[in-house]
Write a structure and sequence with these properties.
mainly alpha; 0% strand
């Protein structure tokens, strides 16, 4: 239901802002929902609620769908389906590099969530690194970061600290 609502809201906002910069709106909403579902996935994975065991995987799949739409919008509209332009910008700018690295890591994590790709299970351990990279990508997106950008970076650090504090407590 949440996934469908995110599509409906995005479509409504794109329609509402049709006469403004629709491409910027498309980038924003596809990216922000990918970030939001990534946070939700790792939130439920971190706190391990008993009745919500399937939610991290489900929200992770939703995050990948939104990230795929975000990447496709960028590749089609900004790079005009040119792999040369894509790879040049990925290795020239920090925002594109963090976004592409996040997308590749999210793709491997998506594959690892299915039983057919058992060999990729190790990639699921990089979820909090992924969260930081996605938050960094969002942080680098504006010319002047606002409070929400700092909040997501802070939240990513907090999730990393909470996750690895548990690991260190278990080893002690």
């Amino acid at each position: 239901m949440l996934f469908v609502l995110s599509f409906v809201y995005s479509a409504f906002m794109l329609y509402k802002n049709y006469y403004f910069d629709i491409l910027a709106e498309l980038y924003f909403y596809t990216g922000i929902f990918a970030l939001g579902f990534c946070f939700l996935s790792l939130f439920f994975a971190l706190f391990k609620f008993k009745k919500c065991k399937k939610l991290p995987r489900l929200f992770g799949i939703f995050a990948f769908i939104w990230a795929l739409l975000h990447f496709l919008a960028y590749f089609i509209f900004s790079k005009h389906l040119s792999f040369k332009k894509l790879f040049y910008s990925i290795f020239s700018y920090g925002i594109e590099f963090s976004g592409f690295l996040s997308f590749v890591l999210m793709f491997f994590m998506l594959l690892a969530s299915f039983s057919f790709f058992k060999r990729l299970k190790f990639s699921l351990k990089f979820g909090y690194v992924l969260l930081f990279l996605v938050s960094l990508h969002y942080f680098l997106s504006p010319k002047l970061p606002q409070l929400s950008h700092y909040f997501f970076i802070f939240l990513a650090f907090l999730f990393i600290i909470l996750r690895y504090a548990r690991v260190l407590k278990r080893k002690s």
